[in-house]
From TrEMBL:
InterPro entries: Peptidase_C45, Peptidase_C45_hydrolase. It holds the Pfam family AAT. This is Peptidase C45 hydrolase domain-containing protein. It comes from the Eukaryota. Coiled coil: none annotated. Residues 14-84 form the Peptidase C45 hydrolase domain.
């Protein structure tokens, strides 16, 4: 975990995958648009440890879902497949409530 103060799994393959995927994310410039975020979360340039994972003969891990929060548009888009090549399966409205009394 990048920000949580708790131990990660010590399984070597998972640690290698996490490290490679974080390094790949570091290669992107800061996103300036929704398209930039989609390109980052759907990236598969690292063939061994892609950010978006699809099960294959050489990779038994998969990305189950991708969620993108649009705080300006107040929506949450959920993708079941790579967001670079697929539309979201659902776009949920976000009704933000004030917690002040």
């Amino acid at each position: 975990y990048l920000r949580l103060k708790m131990p990660e799994s010590d399984v070597k393959m998972l640690m290698e995958s996490n490290n490679h995927r974080h390094q790949c994310m570091d290669c992107f410039s800061h996103p300036k648009s929704r398209k930039d975020v989609i390109n980052m979360l759907g990236d598969q340039t690292d063939k061994r440890y892609p950010i978006f994972r699809e099960m294959s003969d050489s990779d038994y891990l998969i990305t189950v879902a991708v969620g993108i929060f649009d705080c300006v548009g107040r929506t949450w888009s959920i993708y079941a497949d790579n967001p670079k090549t697929n539309a979201p399966i659902v776009v949920l409205p976000m009704d933000v409530k004030s917690t002040s009394k």
